[in-house]
């Protein structure tokens, strides 16, 4: 909001991507505070820089996956997405501008580095002196010589979903009394979920709650997890639970899945989708492969092995999946931080995951709990949890990671908290598509019997670092669906604490957040 900050950033993006002359862009955002103002600035700047056309969602709204789809469908030169994802919105909260490239995906590092370099040399920007464009109605208008095309933000995306999933079968399931609640968290998926779930699929009116995007998201964190979507989580584990529950984040790319009496972890959701995607018409010919971020559990690896599918393990960040999707090496991707998607766009996609689940439930006729029990009895269960230690002094967090790195060679063969260490390394990734090398992506410690602990830092800066510890143990013997993952993981939790010296380095006896 500071004078000329947005303008300098947008001009740097245009300059670093070869200028706007004659180009077509997509524009929209998640409806948070400043979304409408930033959209008007970007339109006037695109016009002044010679763009031919900007396709903008009505009221400057577009979910991130819907923007990715429009960028691809209209063969545009990229898009501006106004969002700070799952972070809170409002005058004193977060705002962001993302630039996606013509493949519909987040700008790769080469592009973002060029943009950053341009921000250090920029000496001016171009903007048209003009009033606001009316974005409240669909249709075409002109801004200078540029066409502004206002589109229904939902229509193209809804048509894409209908082409992928068995809408008649899902409609019959709802007509037969199936109940659900979708919590849009006062963010951008509200209009999409209402149109698709209640409109096209016949879910009961009121199934979608918090459906109107608000500039401050109602004061909440639009982050679909058991902490920030607690009302939905509590409902689904109560006697009044509907058959199915789901939520999405600020810009619509994340999802949380629940059934009556059961929470489905994102790692398990990815595995269930991989095992059952062929039930959806858009995936009936099978999958080219699957991919997960390194810290995501190995549940999908079990499915891939059983179904003879290539399985890729990437660093955290959707751009690594984008390369695999572009190259036709994977169809389904997912990460433990509530992101799942496929090659239909180049972003993760919250509502896509919800519709995939509805398609699977309609095709199998099984409730979520029974589906999960059957999945675990067929593939075994990867007990999984993430422990976050937040706001650690950066020097202490670095010391913990350095201590781990120094011990990597000594750990194999040691017995820690009753577990035998079989391997230890720091994850690095050689991208099979663009041949780039990405190092230092987290320390992995493997134990005998298929258990694993992963250590990563995130959010370094003035407020300190967050230590994320990812804990996992494979259980191949008809695991008890009702068991507590924390209890099942107790030996791995103890071994991780001892190996990393978590209490000694952080001064903490317990994590701040457990998911
Ligand atoms: Mg997001």
Fold and architecture overview:
With 515 residues, the protein is of the alpha/beta class. It folds into three domains: 5-152, 3-Layer(aba) Sandwich (Alpha-D-Glucose-1,6-Bisphosphate, Chain A, domain 3); 156-379, Alpha-D-Glucose-1,6-Bisphosphate, subunit A, domain 3 (Alpha-D-Glucose-1,6-Bisphosphate, Chain A, domain 3), CATH 3.40.120; 381-514, TATA-Binding Protein (2-Layer Sandwich). The chain is 34% helix and 23% strand. The strands form five sheets. Strands 17-18-21-22-23-16-24 form a seven-stranded antiparallel β-sheet. The model has no long low-confidence stretch (mean pLDDT 95). The structure holds magnesium ion (MG). Magnesium ion (MG) binds at residues 85-86, 249-251, 253-254.
Strand order of the largest sheet: 17-18-21-22-23-16-24
Instruction: Tell me the major beta sheet.
Output: 7 strands, antiparallel
Per the CATH scheme, the topology name of the largest domain is: Alpha-D-Glucose-1,6-Bisphosphate, Chain A, domain 3
CATH class of the largest domain: Alpha Beta
Give the number of domains: 3
Give the end-to-end Cα distance, rounded to a whole number of Å: 34 Å
Radius of gyration, in angstroms, nearest whole number: 23 Å
Mean pLDDT: 95
Which compounds are bound in this model?
A: magnesium ion
Strand residues, percent: 15-25%
Percent helix: 25-40%
């Amino acid at each position: 909001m500071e004078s000329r900050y947005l303008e300098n950033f947008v001009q740097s993006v245009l300059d670093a991507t070869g200028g706007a002359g004659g180009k077509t862009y997509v524009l929209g955002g998640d409806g948070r505070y400043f979304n409408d103002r930033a959209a008007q600035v970007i339109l006037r700047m695109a016009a002044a820089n010679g763009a031919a056309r900007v396709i903008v969602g009505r009221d400057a709204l577009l979910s991130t996956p819907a923007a990715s789809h429009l960028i691809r469908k209209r063969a545009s030169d990229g898009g501006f997405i106004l969002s700070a994802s799952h972070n809170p919105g409002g005058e004193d909260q977060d705002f962001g501008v993302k630039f996606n490239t013509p493949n519909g995906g987040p700008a790769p590092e080469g592009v973002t580095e060029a943009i950053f370099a341009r921000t250090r040399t920029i000496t001016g920007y171009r903007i048209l002196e003009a009033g606001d464009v009316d974005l409240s109605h669909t249709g075409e208008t002109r801004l200078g010589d540029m066409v502004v095309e206002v589109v229904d933000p939902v229509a193209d995306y809804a048509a894409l979903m209908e082409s992928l999933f068995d809408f008649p079968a899902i409609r019959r399931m709802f007509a037969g009394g199936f109940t659900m609640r979708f919590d849009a968290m006062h963010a951008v998926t509200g209009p999409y979920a209402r149109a698709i779930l209640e409109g096209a699929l016949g879910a009961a009116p009121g199934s979608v709650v918090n459906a109107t995007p608000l500039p401050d998201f109602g004061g909440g964190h639009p982050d679909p997890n058991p902490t920030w979507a607690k009302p939905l989580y509590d409902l689904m584990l109560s006697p009044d639970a509907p058959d199915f529950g789901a939520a999405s984040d600020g810009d619509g790319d994340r999802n949380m899945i629940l059934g009556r009496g059961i929470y489905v972890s994102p790692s398990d959701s990815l595995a269930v989708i991989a095992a059952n995607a062929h039930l959806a018409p858009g995936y009936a010919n099978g999958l080219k492969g699957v991919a997960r971020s390194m810290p995501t559990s190995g549940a999908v690896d079990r499915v891939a092995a059983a179904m003879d599918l290539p399985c890729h393990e990437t660093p955290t960040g959707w751009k690594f999946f984008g390369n695999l999707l572009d190259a036709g090496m994977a169809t389904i991707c997912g990460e433990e931080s509530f992101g799942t998607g496929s090659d239909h766009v180049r972003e993760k996609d919250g509502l896509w995951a919800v519709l995939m689940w509805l398609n699977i439930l309609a095709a199998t006729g099984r409730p979520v709990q029974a589906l999960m029990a059957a999945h675990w009895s067929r593939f075994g269960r990867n007990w999984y949890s993430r422990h976050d230690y937040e706001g650690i002094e950066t020097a202490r967090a670095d010391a913990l990671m350095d201590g781990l790195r120094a011990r990597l060679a000594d750990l194999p063969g040691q017995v820690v908290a009753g577990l035998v260490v079989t391997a230890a390394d720091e994850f690095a990734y050689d991208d099979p598509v663009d041949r780039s090398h990405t190092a230092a992506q987290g320390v992995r410690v493997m134990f005998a019997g298929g258990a694993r602990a992963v250590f990563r830092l995130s959010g370094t800066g003035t407020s300190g670092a967050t230590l994320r510890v990812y804990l996992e143990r494979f259980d191949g013997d008809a695991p008890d669906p009702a068991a507590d993952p924390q209890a099942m993981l107790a030996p791995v939790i103890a071994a991780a604490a001892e190996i990393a010296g978590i209490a000694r380095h952080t001064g903490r006896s317990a994590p701040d957040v457990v998911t």
